[in-house]
Amino acid sequence: MAHFTKPVEGSWTDHYPHLRKTPTTYEDSISPEYYELERKAVFAKTWLNVGRVERVPRVGSYFTKEIQVLNTSIIIVRGKDQRVRAFHNVCRHRGNKLVWQDFPGEEVQGTARQFTCKYHAWRYGLDGACTFVQQESEFFDLDKGEYGLVPVHCDVWEGWIFVNFDRESEPRPLKEYLGAYGAGFEGYPFHEMTQVHEYRAEIGANWKLYIDAFTEFYHAPVLHQKQAVPEESLKLQQVGYEALHYGIDGPHGVVSSWGGMAPPKDEKMVKPIERKLRSGLFGPWDPPIDIDLPPSVNPGRHKAWGMDSYLIYPNWMLLVWKPGWVLTYHYWPTSYNTHIFEGTCYFVPPKNAWERVQQELAVVSFKEYGLQDANTLEATQKMLESRVVTEFPLNDQEILLRHLHQTTEQYVADYVKQHPEAKDSVPGPAAR
Asked: CATH number for the domain including 225?
C-alpha cells in the first residue's frame, strides 16, 4: 500500500512492518553467484526503462540499447502504425548483430525504412517481419514468415519507454506494475522537457550500492560538504539532515527532500556563482512553466519541498525537482561488482543564452555530486568484498535501502521456488 502522507508519528520504518530492523549483510552485492541469480530473477522478469519517446519521433526512428546484464542488445523502433516496438538486435540467419555502425559494441540511433544485416543482407521491416532473403532459392523450404526478429515486450507510460524480457510468461501490465506512484504521475508535463544533457560512467561497484547512495540524505552534509559554503555546511553537520517524506508502494519507493536551495532563504548560504546565475544543484530558481503537481509529486505536500527521488524497481530512478525539471538515473549491471551509470537531465528548452547557462550550472553541479558518490562507492565495494565486517546497522532514514535489498531478495527467492535447480547456487543469507 502506498502512503502519501505520514500516517502516524514515530519511526518511518515502523510504517512498513515487512521491513526488518536487524543489521544488513551485503552478500547480495559482493557474491558472483547471487548476481547470476539476480540476472534471471530480476532483470529478465521486470519492466526496465530504456528512455523516452522523443528518441523515436517519427516512423522509422530507432535506437539500440546494450543490455549487458542479459547479454543482449535490442532495437527500439517506431513502426508505420506509430507503435513503438522492441526487438532483439540479432539477425535470424547466422546470429549476426543486425544494427550497428563502426563498432559492434556501441549504441546507435537513426532513421531507417528497414533493417539490413551487414553480413548476408537479410532485411527486416519496422514491424520485425523478415522481408528479404539473399538468394532465397538456395535455402530448403524456407518460410520467411517464421524468421522475423525476436520481439521484446515493450510499452510506453507517460512518454517513457519500458521493455520486459520475460519469455516464460506474460508480464504484468506496465501500468499495473508502476502502481500508485505511476498513476499519480499522470499529467505531469514530461513531454515539455526536451532539452537533454547526458552523462555515462563505468562504476566499480554493485548496482544496488549506487542506488543506496541516492535513496538517503544522511550522507549529504558529510560527503558533499564542499558543495556548500562553509557556514551552511557546518550548520547541516551540526543539526543533521532528514528528508521530508519516505514512501513505499510494492517494489517501488520515494524519498522527498527539502527545497531550501531553490531559491535559498538566505542567498549568502550558497556559492557566488549560484547567486549570480540564480541556479545550482536544484536547477534554475525561476520555474520555466507553471505545473499543477499530480498526487505522486511532493506526496507529503510539504511547503518546504524541493525534490522527489522515485526508485522504479529495479534500476531506474526518476527525480522531479520543484523548479520544473527532471533527472533520471539508470544503473545497468555488467558484473557483480561493476555497472554502468547513466544520468540524464531533462529541461524545458531554454529561450535564451541566460536560461541555457542556468541549466548548464545545474548539470555540472549534478555531475560533481555524482562523481563524489561514485568514488566513495568503489571504495565501499572493495572493503565489503574483504568480508572483514559482515553486518551493518541501518538507521530510520535508510528505509529505502532496506526495501531495495529485501525486494531483490524476494525476487530471487520466488525465482528459486520456480526453478529448484537454482537452489544450490544461492549463497548464504543476503541483505537481511
From this structure: 3.90.380.10
